[in-house]
Design a protein that fits this description.
The complex is a heterodimer of chains A (266) and B (257). Chain A is mainly α and 266 residues long. Chain A is built from eleven helices and two strands; from the N terminus they run αααααββαααααα. Chain B has 257 residues and is of the alpha/beta class. Chain B is 37% helix and 28% strand. Chain B has helices at 46-53, 85-92, 110-121, 126-139, 155-167, 185-200, 212-218, 236-241, 246-256, and strands at 6-17, 20-31, 35-39, 61-66, 69-70, 73-76, 79-82, 95-98, 173-177, 204-208, 221-226, 229-235. Chain B has a six-stranded mixed sheet with strand order 8-9-10-3-11-12, sandwiched between helices. In chain B, strands 2-1-4-5 form a four-stranded antiparallel sheet. A two-stranded antiparallel sheet of chain B has the order 6-7. In chain B, helix 6 links the parallel strand 9 and strand 10. In chain B, helix 4 packs across helix 5 (155-167). Chain B is globular and about 50 Å long. The chains are: A mainly alpha (266), B alpha/beta (257). The interface between A and B is medium-sized, with 24 and 32 residues.
Chain lengths: 266, 257
Amino acid sequence: MSHGPWLLAADAGLNFDWDFLARSIFHPSGTFLHGLARTVYISVLAQLFGTLGGLAVALARRSRWMPLRRAGATYVWLIRGTPLLVQLVIVYNGLAALNLYRFTDVTLGPVVILGVVQAAVLTLALNEAAYMAEIIRAALDAIDVGQKEAAVALGMPPSMTMRLVLLPQAARICVPPLGNEFNLMMKSTSLLSVIGLQEMFLTAQAINSATFKTFEIFLTVAVYYLLLTTLWGFVQQWIERKFEGPTAAVSSPRLRERLFAGAGAK
Amino acid sequence: MSAAPVLLEARDVVKRFGGRPAVDGVSMQVHRGETVVIIGPSGSGKTTFLRCLNHLERIDEGDVLLDGTSVGYREGRHGPVELPPREIAVTRRRIGFVFQRFNLFAHLSALDNVALAPRNLLGLSRQDAEVRARQLLARVGLADKEESRPAQLSGGQQQRVAIARALAMRPEVMLFDEPTSALDPEMVGEVIAVMRELAAEGMTMVVVTHEMGFARAAADRIVMMDAGKILEQGPAEQMISDPEHDRTRRFLTQIAH
């Protein structure tokens, strides 16, 4: 093993393997990449289903029927009041131990969907639905009441008013918090290690047991989470700008334009 | 004018907010083709009454009839029962409503604002709905603003789009709730002009406004409301020049200044 001369750490007695770190980051193993891929697609699926579920819960909470409103509020209360970690263990291990439901692998054509992946996506989505429900509810509340009245006065029934007038405007308000939720979601998948799902974090733990390069391998993990969230940050900016573009009520000027306009005014 | 059949009728309408009556037993008949202007001091219940006419407000007593059919209620075993929202919506399609604050759909262009309801409620194709919307925008003088969003339009332009939007449903009666009160003075004229044209074409209209110029020129009848009741009513010219009540005279003098 060769240490770079700039690395004082090695001489000071610190047990740091620069080559191992560099290799982990720039030439990750197939297992690690597999774990990374799982982290990504589980996050995407869970966020997608969680957003749809959240919409359903938010609509239930605005229903004309009181029992439906109650059910929605209870759901949000239960889910937000308990840790995701506990929910994961209850859904995957608890239900099986109870002999109530055991997640088994499902084969769909060429792909096998592991039981543990099903449990993971389901639980993350159920959890996310509670938070998305609150975000969507707040967005709907933020819309001026005159928008709804105008639709109603034209003769639109409530469902159409929601679909054509309120939801399109709520969606625009939802984009920034939704981006925040997905950022959290990607990091939350590290909790899936507790039910034995080989995502990025658990894969790293396995590598750690084999190599004892604890600092280097988890630093690699941190770098990859940072990479994922950074890439997502760019995607989110792009989405926000798109929503802001020709469809926005008022578009805010880009930073450069603002600076330029400010300089020109002087 | 009163030879024409009654199109819209309020019978002893009462609306309370927290037990206090805002509208206190108002009855009114609007004949087909007639333009009625409702005036009255702030808090007199005129806006609330107008909102009761298309069931934007639930009424506590009385009834509102459009062409003989109750707006929002059916006869139940123990008195009137509110209809489900879907059925009330069908009746509202026959009543246009213009808001003080325009309430244009913020996420849609002027054209889409006007085309949305006919397309989704009257089953018009996108193309037919847009043709109708273009004609209406041209009629209110905004043919060049089809693609503009509400935030890019002046108040007067927004209100004209809002009138076009209501007209796109081909309503039998148009209700206007202080349509020029939120406008800068120089924009009042353009909205009033559109309304005068509508009245001249024979549209049935109920207008809550303080624009006495419009009332003098277009109203068949002026109704003075005070404290939730109709204080007096009569032909526009007579109400303006020679009202019966001192309260009306004072009110007219105040708004003239």
